[in-house]
């Protein structure tokens, strides 16, 4: 996978995460609302940075979909927490690809994004995974 392809994939994942956190925010309990809002803002910031990175690599940033199919129905705060953890796992997986495809500052930024997503996933789930970003490939 080229750096441009991996960056586009990360951008697409961030678009989906921003959408997903909109759902999370609508169902999350008051006790975790600030955490969901902070994650939403973090993903918006990463999305915007990735748009610039795609342009810097000579590409046209992939657009967000009008809507995304959720992996399950989110009807309550427990479902919102489960969705948030899943969003972070998926984003971490895409960033692991970007780490492999990048060099220098872009690679360091991708590694930081992977680490941040893994930490958020642990906070949402309450437990960790052995190799963040690789869970879906096992």
Number of helices, counting only DSSP H or I runs of 4 residues or more: 4
- Spatial separation of the terminal alpha carbons: 19 Å
Low-confidence stretches: none
Mean pLDDT: 93
Total beta strand runs: 0
Instruction: Give me the strand/helix succession.
Output: HHHH
Helix content: 55-70%
Please outline what is shown here.
The chain is an all-alpha fold and 138 residues long. The chain is 70% helix and 0% strand. The mean pLDDT is 93.
Q: What descriptive keywords fit this protein?
A:
138 residues, mainly alpha, 4 helices, 70% helix, globular
Architecture blueprint of SSEs:
Elements: H1 3-27, H2 33-56, H3 77-101, H4 104-125
How would you characterize the overall build of this protein?
This protein is mainly α. Helix content is 70%, strand content 0%. It is built from 4 helices and no strands. Helix 1 runs antiparallel to helix 2 (33-56) and helix 1 (3-27) packs antiparallel against helix 3 (77-101).
